Amino acid sequence: MKRSGRRRKMSANLPGEFAKFAKNSKYLRRIWRDTKASLDDIAKCGYFSEDQLAQLRLNETDDQFIGRTVMQPVALVVLGHSCWAKARVVNELFGQSVLPVTSPVGDESQLTWRMVRFSAGNQTEISLALPNSLELVEHLAAYDQPWRTIPRADLEVEGEARKDPALSAAALEIRMKHPLLRDEVQVVATPCNDTLSFEQTYRRATEGCTPLLLYAFAEEAFTEKELADLYELKRIAPKTPVLFIRANLPATSELTESEQHARSLRNARLAEQVQLCTAYVDGENSGSEDKQALESPMQTEEDAPKSVITLPVTAQQQLCSMGFISKHFPEKQRHHDRRRPNVRCSNGCSPSSELIENFDDFACNVCIFVRTALQSLLVSAASLLNTTHLHCLRTMNIFILLCTYFTASVVQPVHRHWHAQHTQALNFELFYDLLYIRVGNVDSWHFRRRRKCCRAVRVLRCGCMLKNPTRNVFTIPGVIVDEGEQAAPPTASVLQICTSQIQDLVLGMLNAAVAEKLVGSMNCLRESFVGTLERCLASLEGVCKEDDCMQASNALKQILNAAYQVKVTVKTSSSLLWVLWEKMKQLVQTLPGRAPPRIDAEWRQRVAADMLESLSEWRLARCICSQFRERLRSSHEQFQAAMRQLEAVHSGRLERTETQRIKVRKLHAPRLARCALESTSLRDEILYGMPQLGRELGRGQYGVVYSSEPWGGRSPCAVKSVVPPDDKHWNDLAMEFFYTRSVPDHDRIVQIRGSVIDHNYAGGTTPAVLLVMDRMQKDLYTALRAGLSWPARLRVALDVVQGIRFLHSQGLVHRDIKLKNVLLDRADRAKLTDLGFCKPEAMMSGSIVGTPIHMAPELFTGRYDNSVDTYAFGILFWYICAGHVKLPYVFEQCQTKDQLWSCVRKGARPERLPQFTDDCWRLMEQCWASDPQRRPLLGDVELVLEAISQQQQEAAHTHESQQLSESICSSQQQQTGGYGYTPCRPIVPTKDKYELAVPVSELSVSTE
Questions:
Q1: Cβ neighbours for 664, distance < 8 A, ≥ 6 positions apart
Q2: What is the mean pLDDT of residues 32-58?
Q3: Rounded CA gap, 109 and 88, in Å?
Q4: Domain edge (last residue) among 660, 679, 708
Q5: Domain hosting residue 699, numbered range
Q6: Is 919 noted as a catalytic residue in this protein?
Q7: A single Pfam family, by name (predicted)?
Q8: Is residue 346 domain-shared with residue 221, that is, in the same domain?
């Protein structure tokens, strides 16, 4: 009756453990698939390189481990060489005799059993299957009659069957309806005395399943074959825990005489084998000690190592020597630890192997072993997934920051684009003002430019007069020009060509001189302006070199070189009369009898001087300005077309980058954050269980806070229960959890210690997320209502500033600083909590969040930065200085939240109360300034608060000294009340104590 009760208990416990594992593995399988799908979507987006994607993904080993854990069925694999021991273990697992129990004292070396695999089925079926899952059409004894215990004939391999490879390797497949086999659980009993090696047997038994290893043996010590198997097992699966079970043999009094005689012979034979194997093992372990003994020959007999006693040897000693179990782990301690399996695997390490020496303890110990092993598998898989999630999210944060940088790098060129267009348009207007000359209206500006042209002509004239007269400037193709007194007189055509070349040379020099004067006289063409414009264009075009956007720089170069590309000819620069006069002179020189002039330096200077004298300043200015205007207009049109092309390229790039930011912020990061929340919650639930909720501590917009019993080794704890109604709230909660958990421990921040998802909340319709955090005593709202002292309030203000500064140093913005989100401990030190709206600046999408009266005006525009926390602190500091929780008068008049928002948007601020000091009021006004740029840095705010606190301490110190002085004076007056008045001396506060200020005239010096 006792045994049947134990079997019923185990049959009820083991299926429950497997059901929990199946439920959790199914949940973990969904997280695993969602993670891989998210990573595949990220890979398709092209945000990361192949090397970065390889770092984001799970490595192959971890991915295979998680896949085996969540996809493969669990199998209880019973190893060993004793058919009797394995049959007892399997029967105990099922709670019924499914395997025949052989004689416990028979010679089992001659007994060969097949591998037996039990699996779930709607009805009991039995068949022979090959390793490739093909069934053998073989008649079995179980087909002849109904059975409850498998016939031995179907288990044993005898006679001709041993010679047949198919029959000897076939396994007995049994499908039956049993609670233990639900949830795809299998039970595998390895073959006994087969021809396969242990490694082949192990691979075959564990193929396609997640094994839980049980090793059954019958004797007090392992035999030679069993030790060899254990060494192989240690080599094949070094980290896999094994439950060693000794199936106790019946007492000698319960055996017949023949069985007693067989047992004695068997024990003698086993003792010899054990002695040899143990001597070999102990020799290996004591080899180092023998070596040390040989190296120290001076040892005395007392110091000499004693001989190791190898007999009698036990299974525990053998397992210790092989490293399966610890040598310093007594049975009592193991039994104590088995009742605390969660604590034992809380660090995520694999559970250790166990030894059950008393078979009566098998029922409870196997349940604990199975629970611990399954929990370890789930914890390891969840930890690997969570590590991947956190790594991906950190990389996502880096990507978001890079995305913000890309957006800035796009927005900045857009500003540069506008600056380039504006600057070039300004330059064009100045150019056009220079070139726009209306007929009959020459203003003073044009008059100054005309004077510059005249000055350039005069300078050129002086240069021409001083020019070297021996320089030959004539290059006439096919004609040699002879100069000097002996030279032949030139012909009319040669003379005309030489005159034209001199005129072209003079006009070219004039072009350069006038262009240099014009360019040098304009401020917009100075190097500082042109250089800025060129750098802007280089930055704009550098981003899109592949798009062939270099036309803007070329157009700018043409604009800048327009003054140097003006061509002035004789017809356009000289007067018409002078041109006619020159034609007449050339005609007269060609008349017969007229001696042609000699080409020399004097003639060259005369021709150049005549050319310069003939210049018409009006025609010259009009010609230069006309050409300048046309070239500038064409270059400007080309520049505008190139800038429009640049604008289109950068606008598209900005849209693509913004699309990437939105996709990362709203899709990829929340999905991975939700996977991280689920994997962490599953791990915490397995390790620490579901937190036990106590009384309600408070409730907010998104959840309820309860007290909790100690959880995860921490006490006291508070649990925030949040029920996300839809995917958006799930994503927001997941991101809040990630940012909160990613914040390092800080004295001014309330830390979240863990999370658990309650899938049974509201009947299982809507899961509830339980966030476990440190429990505080009260919030600032309650403390102010209770009358918190002024020094303590100042200390709270400093704590809040330090907490906000720490968040900003981590790149986070709280966005919801208010009284309810400041918690106080027993010492009235403050900590910030509720990071639900806390996000990195790069992740802020401009959403309107927060509490209305604490919201900065720019929050309503959607463009803000971390200075909104400074504004909120200014409002919070008003409450701290006021010492109460009553709304400011300007906000108290608002009846609805919309009116309150409108009031805040218009820039309304709290009023000054009589108890405010000038320093406090000045700090408030600076913090809630309308312009975010005028708000002080929080480091400066902390310095001001420290100064105010120091002043308060000094004032309290002085007030205390005055009270002490008055009390001393009053006591002296009472003592001398009827005998006259004794003036009291003031008390001066010193560094360490209070001292009476005694005048020097009253000091007496003793001469004794």
A1: 47, 396, 399, 400, 403
A2: 86
A3: 18
A4: 660
A5: 690-775
A6: no
A7: Pkinase
A8: yes
244 three-state secondary structure: strand
Q: For the residues 442-453, what does the mean pLDDT come to?
A: 50
Annotated binding site: 720
Q: What is the pTM of this model?
A: 0.70
The per-residue DSSP string of 848-861 comes to --S-GGG--GGGGT
Measured over the CA atoms of residue 579, residue 581, residue 582 and residue 588, the dihedral's sign is positive
Residue 685 covered by a domain: no
Q: Does one domain contain both 744 and 890?
A: no
The CA distance from 153 to 359, in Å, is 28
pLDDT value at 276 more than 60: no
Which two structure tokens, joined as six digits, stand for 449?
Answer: 């430019």
Cα–Cα distance for residue pair 66/36, rounded to 1 Å: 12
Cβ count near 62 (within 10 Å) = 17
φ and ψ of 356, to 5 deg: -110, 105
Residues 510 and 584 in one domain: yes
- Judged by phi (left if over 0) then psi (alpha if -120 to 50, else beta), residue 708 lies in beta
Q: Is residue 798 part of a domain?
A: yes
Q: Which residue has the higher pLDDT, 862 or 953?
A: 953
The label of the residue with tokens 């009742």 reads 339
Q: Give the CATH number of the domain where residue 828 resides.
A: 1.10.510.10
**Position 552 in a domain:** yes
As given in the structure block, the two tokens for residue 205 are 């038994």
- Alpha-carbon span 456 to 462, nearest angstrom: 10
796 lies in the same domain as 916: yes
- The 3-state DSSP class for residue 441 equals strand
Same domain, 753 and 815: no
Cα(14)–Cα(36) distance, rounded to whole angstroms? 32
Write the CATH number for 122. Answer: 3.40.50
Neighbour-count burial for 139-154, b at 16+ CB within 10 Å, e otherwise: ebebeeeeeeebbeeb
Q: Which residue has the tokens 């193709």?
A: 477
Expressed in percent and rounded to 5, the helix, strand and coil fractions of the chain are: 60, 10, 30
Asked whether residue 762 carries a pLDDT value surpassing 50, the answer given is yes
| Nearest in space to 54 (alpha carbons), one of 395, 304, 322, 376 | 395
How many domains, in total, are found in the chain? 4
Looking at the structure, tell me whether residues 481 and 346 fall in a common domain: no
Contact predicate 669/400, CB 8 Å: yes
How far apart CA 91 and CA 100 sit, in angstroms, is 9
Q: Check 183, 610, 732, 816 and give the catalytic one.
A: 816
Q: At which of 744, 775, 806 does a domain end?
A: 775
Annotated binding site for ATP: 720
Asked if the structure places residue 108 within a domain, the reply is yes
CA 115 to CA 101: how far, in whole Å?
16
Amino acid at 46: G
* Residues 543 and 627 both lie in one domain: yes
CB 245 within 8 A of CB 214: yes
Identity of the residue numbered 692: Q
Query: Considering the chain, what is the average pLDDT of its residues?
Result: 75
**Distance spanning both ends of the chain, measured CA to CA:** 105
As to burial, measured by CB atoms within 10 angstroms (0-12 exposed, 13-18 middle, 19+ buried), residue 691 is buried
Which whole-number Å values give the CA distances from 329 to 240, 326, 956, in the listed order?
Answer: 19, 5, 63
Residues 48, 44: Cα–Cα separation, whole Å: 9
Q: Which amino acid is at 329?
A: F
Q: What is the CATH number of the domain that holds 702?
A: 3.30.200.20
* Predicted local distance difference test score (pLDDT) of residue 310: 43
Q: According to the model, what pLDDT value does residue 454 have? A: 59
Greater model confidence, 604 or 26: 26
Whether residues 911 and 956 fall in one domain? yes
**pLDDT tens by residue, 706-736:** 999 899 888 889 999 999 998 888 988 898 8
